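Annex B, item 7. Sequence and structure tokens for protein A, then protein B.
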Amino acid sequence: MPRTLRQGQRSELYVVDVASNEHRLVFSSGEVLFEAPNWLPDGTLVVNGNGLLYRVADGLEEIELGGVPPINNDHVVSPDGRTVYVSAEDGHIYAVPIEGGPGRRVTNDRGEGFRHYLHGVSPDGTTLAYIGLEWVGDQRITNVWTIPAAGGADVQVTDDEYADDGSEYGPDGEWIYFNSERAGHAQLFRIKGGTVEQLTDDERVNWFPHPSPDGTAIAYVSFPPGTEGHPADIEDVRLRLLTRDGEIRELTSLFGGQGTMNVPSWSPDGSSFAYVTYPL
């Protein structure tokens, strides 16, 4: 079921300029709990809410999903801006023309209970990176997978029992960035072939690495120490920037978490990124 606002709560969409750290309120709603901002190439912002997808203009303008089941907050815009790929509540990923038209299922049936959670598309638009969730007995297993955007055979990128999530391509199309609990609690990593590199190592619980278009920085969501998973409505959720030289910049602290910045959220020119807060 789609998340809804609590009494007295709002959804607030912000854009932060990375150079100046100026945060600009773009849109606010006390009715729709919207999540996970993406950008179209023309600078228009896209969010999900109530199982639907919206452009953000003067209000929320619904994007026709072409018969796709209700969606969650895992959606990615193709590099050319013509297609949006969405994860639906039936566990599959669909391709939808941004200007409307029938949706096309991308993913394969991988057995009862296997679910696909989309997080990234390669810079050339040919490949999707997703998290595959399956149950082995009573154990919940998540790994990084890829699949051709046109449909085809899946490729398993990680094969372990650690909790992996947030798989997203870097701008070179070679590294896939993700968060994982292989370091004890969630930290940021990247993988290329069989090589895994750890990017953060601190007491906070770090999720959803989003590499900038020029590859000079990674924006991510940082939860308080001891947080399990990536829950909603948490105090002291921080948005951080990891620079190429290893410096960590604190950009803001907010009330939120789930839905704040789950998917690629950098502006096309790399000057800013978008996020959502849920103040009470």
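Protein B:
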Amino acid sequence: MENIYDLVIIGGGPAGLSAGLYGARGKLKTLILEKEKNGGQIVITHQVDNYPGSLENATGPSLTARMVQQAKAFGCEIQRGEVVSFDFQSDIKTIRTKDAEYRTKSVIIASGANPRKMSCPGEDKLIGKGVSYCATCDADFFEDFEVFVIGGGDSAIEEAQYLTKFARKVTIVHRRQGFRCAPIALDKAKENPKIEFLLDTVVEEVKGDGILESIVFKNKITGEVTEYFADEEDGTFGCFVFIGYVPETEIYRGVLDCDEVGYFVAGDSTETKIPGVFVAGDCRQKPVRQVVTATSDGAVAAVMAERYIASKFD
């Protein structure tokens, strides 16, 4: 059984990297499969200051690099690969990517989530042309321009603060009066002279011929529709969307239990209804989604996988 892994982890974000560390350190033959970049959502986060023990001015990429280094130090393998099919029904599970097939005694799915879109006319054709879901990636394109931030959670408020380093003005657009972010973050935003608020408002449409040129707003209370046009000298502006995430679980739905949104349903043990299959991180139904809760999930899932293997195969 030399070609069989003890543990294959699908996803190389904080949950997957934590699981990889714990699995490999527990002497399991461990593999992480990541289809894009290691680190998941934090790799595009400009600052991570709420992770216990993180260094001052720690960034998503720097924290990811340390996690990867630590997991590899204990023998965890990390490979690129997008899962296209799987078979979890046997004791030895099979995972297939476009280029390879892997067999394993246990699986941890830590596939994460993707940014939720506004789902308004014009959005898809203007992605990367004024519409963005990543301030760290695209902020410098809007040096001295105006930008709008759509959303009212922690990500929206924190990224709005970051965007003030580049934009001359940042307007936070939120569909209600109340915010779902940490009060201290909201207080800082309100104190920032570059930040303004447009409340009880939603985006109806974004427009532009090859580049974002205008955005249509609707007030949810009055029904009034207004259109903001780019400054004539600028020719464009930025629209950064932070309205939540969609779990990356579609391929597994129908096989594993998911809620109405698509998040995996699993208890604190991270166990699913299929023995030997566990879920961890932002793809799992949970009240708080932060780096620290993702790494906790990964650790728990790896320990549970180790116990499962010991009871099933030893």
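Comment on protein B: The mean pLDDT is 94.
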